[in-house]
Design goal:
about 400 residues, mainly beta, Immunoglobulin-like, Jelly Rolls, 16-stranded mixed beta sheet, five-stranded antiparallel beta sheet, 28 strands, about 0% helix, binds calcium ion
Length: about 400
Amino acid sequence: MQIPWTSVKRKSDPTVSIVPNNPENSLSQLRIAVFNDGTNESGTFYINEVGYFTSASGYFEASLILYHPGLPEYDAEYDIVVKNDGVPINSGFTLRANDARVEIQGGKVTVPYSVREQGKDVIVTATSTSGQSSSVIIPSKKWDITFNDDFDGNDLDPTKWSVFEPELSYGSAPSYCARDCYEVSDGTLKLLAKKRETVLNGRTYQYTDGAISTENKFTQSLGCYVSAMRYEPWSGICGGFWLLPEFHGQRQSLFFDGPRSDLGCGEVDIIEWSNIFGDRYCVTEHFWNYNTNQHSDTNHVMASPQPGKMYDGQFHAIGVVITESNSYYYCDEELVGVFEHSYTTLNASGETMYPANNFMLFSYRMGPDNDSNWVGRWNFDDSDFPLKYEVDWCRAYK
Ligand SMILES: [Ca+2]
């Protein structure tokens, strides 16, 4: 698509055309990037980016598409875009890093943890064939481990974990959380759903399932929470790894919504997976209005790591890094979601509100075998029990 210069007018004065080298506006080039995401009417284009350039010799620039801190102990991947006069280019330049351990392929830069754990900032320099150069800095975050469990014993470490909400059931759930909902063996934690008829508070259940948490045993605010888990291919039951704030009598916040100061995040779901989600999994931040305690909003993304990871029988590290301004969600070295937030906020009285510490939680909960179950109908039968959600390790860092 070409737009003649004479048809481009100044917004402040439509009678003035933006003409190359017109001293009145000092523009020499104008670039408009457009997109159509396929959901809009055909023939409709939206402007994605507008830039202008005043250098006669051209403008050569390398930039990082998105900085993120990366998961501790994993490589971190970044995308770098190189532009000439604002137009992305794929050739006519070289990319070099200030450390030979950094891998560069096309515009993808992989910083190994061996570099990141030294706290060494990575500088990637693009040099054009005509000798222009431009650098980007990728800061390295040094992590200190604050919590670790490899599940090496034959029971849960009682200084770290407790059964969460024992003997509690939700709504129409066909199960309740049993005190013996888990097993620790061969280096892993197994959360189990079992078929067994029990009577609890006058109601007969055919199944039990469960959850464990670090409540009252380990809490933290900012930092990284990560664990490695694998799933059996069941739908109708959901395996989760999440964060909840310390309770303190009413729901607290892990952080606050940026634009809406009355909303606090009261639950972070780092992963929720059932077979109906296929290669993807749910990442969700739940916000409540801390004045009314009403659930008000969510940040949600269906995380899409490389296909096959949910079915390959391997453990994959699923985690979040929470900073004062963002939460970054990961599957291994892949960044799968980012949300912005505020660490503090001002309430209606103008007082500064701070977040509470939060604890980690694993859950394996059944829903009913009907269409009301958001994780799908059951694809298992009685002979498949006990159903199992397995965790190799769990860590937190600051
Ligand atoms: Ca282990």
